[in-house]
From TrEMBL:
Domain PHA accumulation regulator DNA-binding N-terminal span(s) in chain numbering: 9-68
Domain of life: Bacteria
Residues annotated as domain PHB accumulation regulatory: 73-109, 114-149
Pfam families in the cross-refs: PHB_acc (PF05233), PHB_acc_N (PF07879)
UniProt protein name: Polyhydroxyalkanoate synthesis repressor PhaR
UniProt xrefs under InterPro entries: PHA_DNA-bd_N, PHA_reg_PhaR, PHB_accumulat
Amino acid sequence: MPDRNHVRLIKKYANRRLYDTQTSTHITLSDIRKLVIQEESFQVVDAKTGEDLTRSILLQIIQEAESDGEPIFSSEMLKGIIRFYGPFQGMLGSYLDKSIQAVVDIQAQTGQQSSQAWNDFMHSQIPTMQKLMGQYVEQSKQLYLNTQNLFGMFPGFPGTAGRGDKDKDDDKS
């Protein structure tokens, strides 16, 4: 069982090499992926500045995983995620975080269930999850549009119906 109080320090150098200070060896993204799977606490920092690069490295690992085999994120899903950056960013982040944690909790509760049985279960759930996510996105879209319509009632508010009058004035010039 990994020691959750100890955070393993990984340093990233300018030549893009990663150095594990615990084992005093250079490691790869694959090695970091193993640390994640083993639930070992770690932090990746820039060797020169000390800047925390953990999220960036984790995104690289996801990008590599998406390139190999069957991706989790479809192009449409990625476009949807990109559209959520801004007003609903916190809401989507929280939703995704809770959803993934729920799957992890279910997996932990099932204990030693075989990988194949888990994969079969998850593949059978994909249509349901896609439908639920589609409904959620549609509801969020309607909430966003309703909010925009509400602000449209106030002329002169940036990005609303009040701007249409200004655009008409610009056409007359």
